Amino acid sequence: MYKRQESNWFAKPLREASILRRLEHNWKGDSVKTSGWFTATWIPISLEITPSSFILSWSILKFEESNPRISSRFLSLSEPPTPRSQSPDSLQNVERSPPIRQFVYQPQESNDLEQIYDIPLSTDSNEIDLEEQRKERQSIREARLRVEVAQMKLEKYLQNYYRKYGDIPDESDSETSSLEDSD
C-alpha cells in the first residue's frame, strides 16, 4: 500500500539512503531526568515532510532506571581501520604473549559519571555502516564491469570496421597521394 501512495506523492521512488540523509529528529519530552542511568522508550508521533527534509517527532512512552550498557561492537568501531606497521622486534614480542584487553572502572562515588568521548552513542554518519559500504563497493564493481564491457564492444566494432573498410589512412599518406595525382 505504501508503494502505491508513494508514487502519487513523489516524482521518483524514495530510497532509504536519501531519506536518512535528510532525516531530522525532534525529541519532545516533558520532564527528562539528567542524572543517573535511564532507559527511555520513545514512540514516533508524526512525520513532517518538507521539500528539504523529513522531520520525525518523538514522545516519551516510559522512562525506567537501568544499568549502563556498552555495545558489543564498541571495540570494533573504536579500533583503527588499518593495522599500523610495526618493527620485527615488536612483532616477535606480540607473538609470544597473547593480546589482553582489560578495562577497569572504579568510580569514586556511586553517582559519579566518567566522561568517555569515544563511545559511539548516536547513529550519526560518523558511525560505520557496513551494509552501506558493501552496497557502495558493489555499485563500484558493477560500474567497472560496465566500462570493461563498453571497451570490449568498442574493440569489436573497430575490428568489424577494419574488416569491411580496411585501415584508416594516415594524414601523411593522403597528402602524398594527392601530390602524386596532381603531378
How would you describe the overall organization of this protein?
- It is a single chain.
- The protein is 42% helix and 16% strand.
- The protein is an alpha+beta fold and 183 residues long.
- Among the domains are: 1-68, no CATH class; 128-167.
- It starts with a helix and ends with a helix.
Query: What class, by secondary structure content?
Result: alpha+beta
What level of helicity do the residues show?
Answer: 40-55%
Assembly of the depicted chains: single chain
Q: Describe the biggest sheet?
A: 3 strands, mixed
- How much strand? 15-25%
Q: List the secondary-structure elements in sequence, H or E.
A: HHEEEHHHH
Strand order in the largest sheet: 1-3-2
Query: Radius of gyration, Cα only, in angstroms?
Result: 32 Å
| Cα shape | elongated
Span from first to last CA? 82 Å
Mean pLDDT: 71
Strands, count: 3
Keywords:
183 residues, alpha+beta, three-stranded mixed beta sheet, 16% strand
